[in-house]
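An example makes the point: we print one protein in full, the chain in one-letter code, the fold tokenised, without further comment:
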Amino acid sequence: MSYKLSIIAKSTYLHAIVTGLNSRENVTRYLQEIRHECTVQGCFRVLIEERLEGPRLGTMDVFQIAADGSSRAHGTFEAIAYVDVNA
């Protein structure tokens, strides 16, 4: 695993901070971890703060991650906010 995921429980949401290398595999894995943690904590609002390093993912990679992730997480989340601090 070439990333680190920290999750901080706030009063109404989970704040997920991810650092490490930017790759399709890492993004897919950390999103799965976040979904699992939301289920464990019973909190389905999440702020994802991405601090990954390296080249940006290609358009097709981003599309595929979004398509696969949305089908797996259908009905799981109430709200997701995403911030890429390296954008």
About this structure: The two ends are 23 Å apart (CA to CA). The mean pLDDT is 91.
